[in-house]
């Protein structure tokens, strides 16, 4: 990249616009709203899936976790029964109605085939959807935005967080909003004098003019959605709860007000529970409670749009089946993926359950992976988002031909 182009890109970034430059720069596309939506929530730090959806009926579960295993349903601090074998962590009680309505499902013993226990590498593979390959230049949600049928404006893909995540990096345009109320507040480019100056600077710029115009249009689109009467009426002058429930409610309203937003991503940290993890109460429960409330809020605030939405909750890997000497769990392998939505085959724990008997554990310590996470992504793309089969290999390169694929949609 030439120094002149670098300076232009830095100026645009400072103005709150995410504009790819160089060989990966994207071509502008005309807006075209798409009905089917996907929201991905990533739990960074590796959440303990064995206590999120606990195999309470598995005889070895309590032996492996003498102080952190969830009690059986009906007992004090017990799991919320799902199907007679698995139970939901009690801190996730706000999600139980969605399970009962068959709008919530889990895929247990799922994850990446790559054996790494590095958070950095595993998150990279989960976001690129190319396990074991570090050279992949883009994220799978960015590829998805580029491959989906029809054309859409630059607000098709949206991230909520401090920085643009790996999963949305690539050629396709994407918007990044900060967490909290600041994400939908006016920025420096909303000042008329500043906007006029930038408009004059980039209006006829050969390299960045079109990208700048699309970025400004996307920003205005999101701001208009945030300032709608619906959002003001729902808030009723009071601030929403802090943290994820706040962001979830705001995201739902943005998506309802702007039909061009089709793909959304948000990441939450704090799941690396090496010590004092707890069972029904404690560190993990304190993380799960706002997560469950936020997901329930997201589903409720989406309204009728929830029927055309899939919410996917993922984490880079699971945690050890055995608790450690500090009352926590260490980096593991297999985990549980969550799916919420009006058309998911809910009320079921999907996947080939290997059990947690000592002889079934991966490397003698972890829940095994029997469902490649890419098989779940493939079904979401094909069955929910209607991605043509011919495009699947571009979305998920090197996808194995033979995969265990649970039927996740009705």
Automatic annotation (TrEMBL):
A Pfam family per the record: DUF1501
Keywords: Signal
PROSITE patterns hit by this protein: TAT
Signal sequence coordinates: 1-27
Protein name (Swiss-Prot/TrEMBL): DUF1501 domain-containing protein
Organism: Zemynaea arenosa
Organism domain of life: Bacteria
InterPro entries, alphabetized: DUF1501, TAT_signal
